[in-house]
Amino acid sequence: MKKIELLQSVSIFWDLTEDELGHISKKMVSKSFETGRMILLEEAEGEQCFFVTKGSVKITRINKRGQEVILAILRDGDFFGEMSLLDGESRSANVVALEETEVLTLNRKDFLGVLEEYPQIAILLLKEMAHRLRKSDRQIASLSLSAAEKRIALCILRIAEEQGVIQRGFVSIPKAPIQQDIANMSGTSRETVSRALKLLEKEGFVQRNGRELIINDYNRFIKEFDS
Ligand code: CMP
């Protein structure tokens, strides 16, 4: 398949005409990686951005206990390797091919040049990066809750199911139980309830207004704590 046809499968290039795609594709080099091949190594210097035209990759980091943590799985139509080209720092994560994977690569100078020449690509790239940040934020929020704190979140959900009223898209519990009662209901301590509520508030899951407890986005709350 010609490079220009391959490029049409990458989402951030969808707004471009065939001529524009042809112009950009001339700057690109195609590469393929077999299953399990390490494509990028965390901490290495970044020289290229990658556009996946076939296959899939996992984005990983190694935690303090030496275990692999998968941050994301990206497929054909996605891109990776843009971060270190944009901020000049080293690679933020490892990237490993999960199957036979084909990519088109763009070097730093051409990548930055393309973003300047075609602002519509820059906007789609920012949109995707915002989407990834939201996902990471959700992961951080759920990971930072301990098992007891998660039980408290579930307990709040049960209270909302029984006593919640829907108001302007929020679910409000007008007279939420006091912290000691939530602790008793969830088998935790008042201190843990206080900490969990602070965390949930900080992460934008709930708001407190005296005895009133508001769940900002009910569907997001369910997705996070009850699925
Ligand atoms: P870079 O830091 O250059 O190299 C590793 C790449 O992994 C990074 O660019 C991003 O493209 C990608 N990456 C890092 N973190 C995430 C994430 N949380 N979700 C999706 N992709 C990511």
Please outline what is shown here.
It is built from nine helices and twelve strands. Helix 6 packs across helix 8 (190-202). The protein folds into two domains: 2-141, Jelly Rolls; 146-225, Winged helix-like DNA-binding domain superfamily/Winged helix DNA-binding domain (Arc Repressor Mutant, subunit A).
Q: How many helices does DSSP assign? A: 9
Uncertain ranges: none
Share of helix, binned: 40-55%
- Tell me which ligands are bound: adenosine-3',5'-cyclic-monophosphate
Output the radius of gyration. 23 Å
Q: Which range does the strand content fall in? A: 25-35%
> Would you list the SSEs in sequence order as H and E?
HHEEEEEEHEEHHHEEHHEEH
- Provide the structure class: alpha+beta
The CATH topology of the largest domain turns out to be: Jelly Rolls
How would you characterize the largest beta sheet?
A: 4 strands, antiparallel
Provide the domain count.
2
CA(first)-CA(last) distance: 41 Å
The coarse overall form would be: elongated
CATH architecture term of the largest domain: Sandwich
Oligomer: single chain
Main sheet: strand order: 1-8-3-6
Number of strand segments = 12
Arithmetic mean of pLDDT? 91
Which CATH class of the largest domain?
Mainly Beta
Please identify which CATH superfamily of the largest domain we are dealing with.
Answer: Jelly Rolls
